Amino acid sequence: MSPNIQDVPESAAVPTDREMVRIQHVTKEFSLRHDHSFKELVFSALQKKKLSDTFLALDDVDLTVHAGETVGLIGFNGSGKSTLLKTISGVLFPDHGRVILRGRVAGLIEVGAGFHPDLSGRENVYLNGAILGMSREQIDARFDEIVAFSEIEEFIDTDVKYYSSGMFLRLAFSVAVHTEPDIFLVDEILSVGDEPFQRKCLERIRELQAAGRTMVVVSHELEMLEKLCTRIVVLRKGTVIYDGDPTEAVATLRAS
Amino acid sequence: MTAEAVEPRASLPLVPTRAEQAQGWRAPGQDAGWLNPIRERFLLRLLVRKELRVRYRGSMLGMLWSYVKPAVQFIVFYIALGVFLQLSKGTPGYAVYLFSGIVVINLFGEVFGNATRSITGNGALVAKIYLPSQLFPWSSMIVALVHFLPQLLVLVVGALLSGWLPSPTSMVAFGLGMVILLVFTMGLGMLAAALNAAFRDVENFVDLIVMVATWLSPVLYRISMVEESIGGTIWWWLYQLNPLTIVVELFHVAFWRYSGPVVDKLPMDPTLATPGEPFGLWWAGLLIAVATFVIGTVVFERSKRRFAQEL
């Protein structure tokens, strides 16, 4: 479900000159082999045949993100948005070029990826907080706030497998937005939960913007990004085709 | 400098230069490498707790299973080898002898097997969120140690009942054995985990090694029987240099060799004494273990950047 456009707050981000992320000549190639086995490997070595086709997900991408900016990444499926986000988070490494950054980075790459259904809500909050880089003291201090934001107080000691999908996503999102990183990576998560909760999430994003956090957001919700971002980058087939004013960027993508 | 103009991509260092680091720049995914398990103790503890919880979900006996499995294994081996093949006749305290070897092989099998599957098993995390991937094999080792404790307890009680008393020698032998075993197995485990991310055949191969391990070290029979058969050949040396052989012998020294019945019978049967008493080839075992650990760590560190895309 996409958020109501009138609910999306105006961007509260205040861009500064301090560079936070530098992406320099980043190229990432994927090989499209799905199964690996020794047999295939031996045969391909014997026949001197290339084992797999390759796919260029990112092709010489340059991008600098400044402190306080909210940068949107848009593009059609397969344009390399998520790959770019993953190279910033450290999950993927570029084949050429490099990514460097300042400060702590936390990704909402996939909400709830670190959740385990057999643990209680409380245990999952601790496990995920730690995975996202928080210390025990930080989690202790923010625990009540996290639970209150997710609105599932009475179920916090229930195993997550008994949660409804909405409850699950709310708790996962709540942990993620309370990790307080310097750089926030957000991938297609603003379509979480019901309308009131979405409004709350957007409000939280706005708070983070006002607090001077740097954000990189991937989404297909073009109108929402247009309002939230200070700058939008358009990707096509792994290259940057536009970088600048949000309204222009959305128009560029629609025209292509 | 001309090279830089022609090929600017190749000249960029992956890690920020010193000047850049001074300004606070770092590369994403740059971490403390093999020191991660020490730096990230809190996360490691949570991962261990998760694994223990998940292992026994919906099981009524829970942790009791870690007593039941070795008990059944022990009874089967004792009846088949001790009684039917009459190995217990020539070996005083054969039950303790057998069980002290079994716990070694069980710990080896569990650490090696779990570590091998630790990256592929946590694929959902590895592929989506950055966290130091060294933590996965390490947490599976700690889980294996938790399961090892009850077995160790049973072994100590059994040894006490058959006339064994703890001594400084047995403590040193036990400590050496544990260190060699854990360092060696973690090295193998990290190596196999890294390879298993690329080729799933590795985990089947590891199962095979674990299955054979019981028979390739003096767990069920005595090492003097091996020397009688292949003594003097290169195979005998390879057999002796197998770190598992060294560890199993150290455990025998720790829990069996200096117990009453064995000491009493020693004058009649000098083969009861362990070769190179009391600690045998411990230095060779330690060397091999450390070398394996270094190789495992280097291979793991080199390939961890590719884990996310290989899963």
From TrEMBL, chain A:
The lineage of its organism: Bacteria, Bacillati, Actinomycetota, Actinomycetes, Micrococcales. Keywords: ATP-binding, Nucleotide-binding, Transport. Gene3D superfamilies: P-loop containing nucleotide triphosphate hydrolases (3.40.50.300). Transmembrane segments: none annotated. Residues 21-255 form the ABC transporter domain. SMART domains: AAA. The keyword Nucleotide-binding applies. This is ABC transporter ATP-binding protein. The keyword Amino-acid biosynthesis does not apply. One of its GO terms (molecular function) is ATP binding. Belongs to the ABC transporter superfamily. PROSITE patterns: ABC_TRANSPORTER_2. It comes from the Bacteria. It holds the Pfam family ABC_tran.
UniProtKB/TrEMBL annotation, chain B:
InterPro entries: ABC2_TM, ABC2_TM_bact-type. The keyword Nucleotide-binding does not apply. Pfam families: ABC2_membrane. It is found in: Cell inner membrane; Cell membrane. The chain crosses the membrane at residues 67-87, 94-115, 135-161, 173-199, 205-223, 235-259, 279-300. It is a multi-pass membrane protein. It comes from the Bacteria. PROSITE patterns: ABC_TM2. Keywords: Cell inner membrane, Cell membrane, Membrane, Transmembrane, Transmembrane helix, Transport. Residues 61-303 form the ABC transmembrane type-2 domain. Belongs to the ABC-2 integral membrane protein family. This is Transport permease protein. The lineage of its organism: Bacteria, Bacillati, Actinomycetota, Actinomycetes, Micrococcales.
